[in-house]
């Protein structure tokens, strides 16, 4: 499939959803078999990888923390830190999109920190698709999605009754189809939620650790 050229001067940003790095509070499914401390280290590696990808995407970045207080991460100076608002994930994502669109942005993408295959190229490709499609989705292998982007807010897109299940991507597609709204799809990637996921995907994190170790030794 030919990819659309990104020739649009539209103002674009990435919304990054994060939690503070606290053992026992992050990667809880993973922690059931690895222990809370190892799950925390894996979470921190995922966040660092995601921050690096977002910072090299060419877009502005808004880090929305799950709660107020110290973030626990050292963000690039140009990142803007905000707090998520809403009773569930859908409400929190809807509020974040509406808040950032109100600042004058025209293309927005939201990502979490579960996808170790996240890269600047994935984010740039998503923005390229948004020059032609009103919505772009990156489906995850577990039935959710690792990325969702919009060119203008789509009311009801986060109106799912439940989240964190294998039908999230399919239900989101149904919402868009009911609205007769077109959308573009990115390649399917994998989230890291379990120890089996970690064993299969840890090579993406080891690459980051090697880079970090080289920088620390310089």
Automatic annotation (TrEMBL):
<dbReference type="InterPro" id="IPR018641">
    <property type="entry name" value="Trfase_1_rSAM/seldom-assoc"/>
</dbReference>
<dbReference type="InterPro" id="IPR029044">
    <property type="entry name" value="Nucleotide-diphossugar_trans"/>
</dbReference>
<protein>
    <recommendedName>
        <fullName>Glycosyltransferase</fullName>
    </recommendedName>
</protein>
<dbReference type="Pfam" id="PF09837">
    <property type="entry name" value="DUF2064"/>
</dbReference>
